[in-house]
Amino acid sequence: MNEIPYLDLYYALRPFLMIVAGAFGCLAIDMASLRHFNGPITRNKTVGMLTVVALLAACVPVCWQIGDEPESLLGHTLVVNNLSLIFILVILAFTIITAVISMNSNIGGHAGEYYCVLLFAAVGMMVLVSSEELLTIFVALELTSICLYILTAAQKGVLRSQEAALKYFMFGAIASAFLLFGLSYVYGLAGTTDIRAIAGALGTGKASPLLAVALLFVLVGFGFKIAVVPFHLWAPDAYEGAPTPVIAYISTASKVASFFVLVKILVLSFVNLKGTAFLCHPASGWSLVLAVTGTASMIFGNVVAIVQRNTKRLLAYSSIAHAGYILIGLVAANETGLTAVLFYVIVYGLTNLGAFGVVAVLAEKAGGDDLEHMNGMARRAPFLSFLMLIFLLSLAGIPPLGGFFGKFYLFAAAVQRDSQNFGLLWLVVLGIVMSAVSLYYYLIFLKHMYVESATDNTPITTAPHLNAVLAAAAFGVVLFGLMPQNILELLKGLVGQL
Amino acid sequence: MYLDWTIYLSFIGAAIVMVLPRDARRLIRWVSITTGVAGLWIALFGFVQYNGMVDDLISTTGSGFVKVVDVPWIPLLGSRYHLAVDGINLPLLVLNGIVCVTGILFSWNVEVRTKEFFAFFLTLIAGVYGVFMSMDLFLLFVFYELAIIPKYFIIAIWGSTRKEYGAMKLVLYSFIGSAAVFVGLLALYFAGGGKTFDMLELAKHPVAHQLQIWIFPLLFVGFAVLAGMWPFHTWAPTGHVAAPTAASMLLAGVVMKLGSYACLRGAMLLCPSGFQYWQMEVAWIAVIGIVYGAAVALAQKDFKFIIGYSSVSHMGFVILGLATLNLKGMSGAVLQMFSHGIVASLLFAVVGRMVYDRTHTRQLDELGGLQKALPFAFWSFVVGGSASIGLPGFSGFVAEVNVLVGAFAVSPWLAVAAASSIAVTAAYILNALHKVFFAEEEHAKKAHAHAGHAADHGHGAGDEGEPRWRLPWISVPEVIAAMILMALLVVIGLFPSIMLDMITANVDLFLKGLAR
Question: What's the pTM?
Answer without folding.
Answer: 0.92
